[in-house]
């Protein structure tokens, strides 16, 4: 039976306010703002507030560094020793001196590129490859420069490779008697040309003292007994071959000459030694006397 | 006239906006229930249109994504008589449908059954300037129609061109670009009471919704319950609603007549309530569970416990036979059908080629109604259920939802109405800016 004064039946209709709120909630922009924008903003605010304190920031930085350290110092990443391959003993010693690493060391702390640059900055090293080999070995593969000539300068004797780079200094010529000697300013820049001339001068090797760069443009071949062959700027090898041919035919260099000047290949000139000139004058005088007589 | 014209054009613009946004709500404001469906437009490219006039208002494939029904309050005879209550009921339905669709709807298309619809047939005729029919000629022919004096306080709800004739060829669907000398147009004009319409508009405005269209529920029930050949060959759809019974007659896929009888299922319930002295809610339950209109010998023996809440034991233990119930219901249903018969006769329904009658609406679920209807209306009668719309929940597929489903179809591809056509150039003011714009658009 129906009770008098009981609560009125529930009205299923939403109030105007809740109707509007529901419609607002169903609006995509509003919904996205509430569901994504506000949480993001709150989180950003919280993080900002948390990091505002210098101590906290430092603690976090330290913890991060600690964690990083612990990974880096695992035995898998530690380098125990250094191996230098392809270098002669003095060069290897020099490399070891140049790369002063305090083993064991984590591979994260090594700057392989810097090590390589440092090794390559050594003059006897043409090229170097630096790598960390399995087993905790820092391997340095070295490609050494090969000296081809001895360059005599005011400061002493220097070994030079074919690109003109300095390899090392030596104390005495006899240390590397097998290499030709060049001298003169700028001689190191034209080592290849010097070597070609050296090759061409095969028969003269026994008499040759060395090559002299003149005026930074052309070569002189210096022989013993104070003889000099002055080569032209252009095609010095061909000119030298002509001189050698002359020598073979007439034993030119065996005579008392001081200079064979072939700077102008069409007009080779000879300069006789002082004694020879006097001798010649004497002979001419005799001949003249005889003629006048 | 122009005022209404502008109103309807505004609603068309709203509908365009809703199509761009992709969702629209439809609202069937009935006497017994308010149904709200939320539609999602799939875009015009997904629409498989049939033959006939290409719509000027834009068409689209649709899908129902939200549906809600609530008991109607404050509506009698299909008209609003308590605004606050109706507003609450609309809010309830819209809230639930939005919740199901999980989308906010701002545009709504509404239909209602009451407001005393009245049909007029208009015709107009113009000479063509050049021999080909242009859009302007159609507009001129439509504006040449003599609008009858439908009285103050009335509003045009539908004005659909139903027929075009060029010279002596009649029955054209689309006269554009055809050759002839004279163009005639027939318009079916449906007017309703202005006050009821403005009440409904006000209610919808109060719910923060924009009205994107209005339709008569008799018309939209016909759209959904009649199959295509019935619409083509001439048939009547009778929408037996709660407070009013809508009648719409279709021919050549156009509504040519509409009317309503202000008696409906609620009157049957009231009769039961009065006759058996029980509350209305109980009467409604008994009507739906045991109701019928054709009595058989079996019904004398089938006793229905009718109950009551008065506290008087004798009174609360009463029983009636089903035959008695039928005896109460039948006269009222007969009255409705006879009224319908009168309206159909007045409209000249017996002149139509195929006089099919389709009963739909919640009231058509009364057992034995088809038999009674064919006896009263004397025609081939069938019970109609609304056609299927994609996504419609099972609960909303009954004949009671013929109006709501029809409104979905109306929202998806409305028929062209007067206001969809061009405004004839000579009705523009002489120095109007619009006139310049129109001239440029036509000539460039």
From TrEMBL, chain A:
The keyword Cytoplasm does not apply. GO terms for biological process: cell septum assembly; FtsZ-dependent cytokinesis. It is a single-pass type II membrane protein. Residues 77-145 form the POTRA domain. InterPro entries: Cell_div_FtsQ/DivIB_C, FtsQ, FtsQ_C_sf, POTRA. Transmembrane segments: none annotated. Keywords: Cell cycle, Cell division, Cell inner membrane, Cell membrane, Membrane, Transmembrane, Transmembrane helix. It is found in: Cell inner membrane; Membrane. Belongs to the FtsQ/DivIB family. FtsQ subfamily. Essential cell division protein. This is Cell division protein FtsQ. It comes from Harenicola maris. The lineage of its organism: Bacteria, Pseudomonadati, Pseudomonadota, Alphaproteobacteria, Rhodobacterales.
From TrEMBL, chain B:
Its main location: membrane. It is a peripheral membrane protein. Keywords: Cell cycle, Cell division, Cell membrane, Membrane, Transmembrane, Transmembrane helix. It is found in: Cell membrane. GO terms for cellular component: cell division site; cytoplasmic side of plasma membrane. Residues 24-225 form the SHS2 domain. GO terms for biological process: FtsZ-dependent cytokinesis. The chain crosses the membrane at residues 21-41. It holds the Pfam family SHS2_FTSA. Belongs to the FtsA/MreB family. Self-interacts. Interacts with FtsZ. Cell division protein that is involved in the assembly of the Z ring. May serve as a membrane anchor for the Z ring. NCBIfam families: ftsA. This is Cell division protein FtsA. It comes from Harenicola maris. The lineage of its organism: Bacteria, Pseudomonadati, Pseudomonadota, Alphaproteobacteria, Rhodobacterales. The gene is ftsA.
